[in-house]
Amino acid sequence: MTYLRPRATAAVFIGHGFLAFALVAAAATRAGLSRERTLAVGLLAGLFGLAPDVDMAYAFLGVLEPTGGSAVGSFWAASTEIHRVVTHSLVVGLVFGLAAGAVASERRLVQFLGAGALAGVVAVAFAVSGGLPAVVVGLLAVTVAALARGARRYDIAPTAVTVAGVVGLCSHPFGDLLTGTPPAFFYPFDVTLTATRPNLLGDPTLNLLAPLAAELATFWLALGVYLWVTRGERPLLHVRRRLRTRAGLATLFAAFVVVAPDPTLHTAYLFVFSLLALSLAVATPLPALDVRSLSDLRGESFTTGVTGLAAITLATATYTVAYLAV
Question: Which residue ranges traverse the bilayer (predicted)?
Fold first, then answer.
């Protein structure tokens, strides 16, 4: 039995880490952890949430060995060979999350059992799918072990490491459900939750805008939780105080509807890069206007980040309205 996928267009959902951070940090706050400990556990969950995409390391072979097209095309073509398969399984995520807590334990026997669980999953991947999937699962196992050992150095309790690991690793596949080939949720078992990406809106462009909106929502959620933990219970007020009003210029992005082809998941690069360029242009602090002295640089990174995020959100929203209206 093999789980290597046929070539297909890949899209990357980078909100996994933000979602895991928000969920775990909010739970940690409710559980009574200190601010510093809450942020540490939330950050750990965010890193676990990003870990399954370690399988993208294989895609760099596409750049080293191009298939005749551009380097970018070769990269994405190689990524679809193994991406969202063995490392995006709920079964693997659950076992690795529990193993992370064991590796972070102070007891040698428990550490040994955790390491054995990681190695056992790699062995199963080799037996079921062959060498390449086993290597990719091995990369994830090393990443999980490194995060667990790092958490131990910062005195994060094994129970907290387990929660962060399970939430981060098991929430990741669901974020990918709307952005390309569905993950193999129950690998190594031959059970398919869904074989195709849900076509909820029936329109290629709206099927791009929907996951983009979901990703932006994870950014705002993570920001809200962070401000709630560090500033109190009114995060929106803090955002409003630091937001530059010129973020409103991003509404002009609606003109993209008439000057560029309709973007889809297959051709999202120009659209996304245009959003990022607009965000950078709007959010970058201007000398003499935003920064007059070195003291003005205090908190500037937060202001720039919030303004950029607001600009992308406004641009996406106004583009969606314009697209529906045209």
Answer: 85-105, 117-144, 156-175, 208-231, 243-261, 267-289, 301-325
Domain boundaries, given as residue ranges, for the chain:
16-175, 206-325
- The reply to whether the predicted model has a pTM over 0.90 is no
Q: SS3 for 61?
A: helix
Q: Name the band, by pLDDT with cuts 50, 70 and 90, for residue 13.
A: low
Q: Which of 28-37, 42-51, 74-83 has the lowest mean pLDDT?
A: 74-83
Coil, helix or strand at residue 191: coil
Query: Any idea which residue has 């297959």 for tokens?
Result: 266
For 287, the 3-state DSSP assignment is: strand
Determine if residue 68 is left, alpha or beta; phi over 0 gives left, psi from -120 to 50 gives alpha, anything else beta: left
Distance separating alpha carbons of residues 313 and 293, to the nearest angstrom: 30
Burial 163-180 (b: 16+ CB within 10 A, else e): bbbbbbbbbbbbbbbbbb
Which pLDDT score, from 0 to 100, does residue 36 have? 94
* Rounded Cα–Cα distance for residues 304 and 229 (Å): 20
Q: What share of the chain is helix, strand, coil (3-state, %, to 5)?
A: 70, 0, 30
* Phi, psi (rounded to 5 degrees) for 33: -70, 155
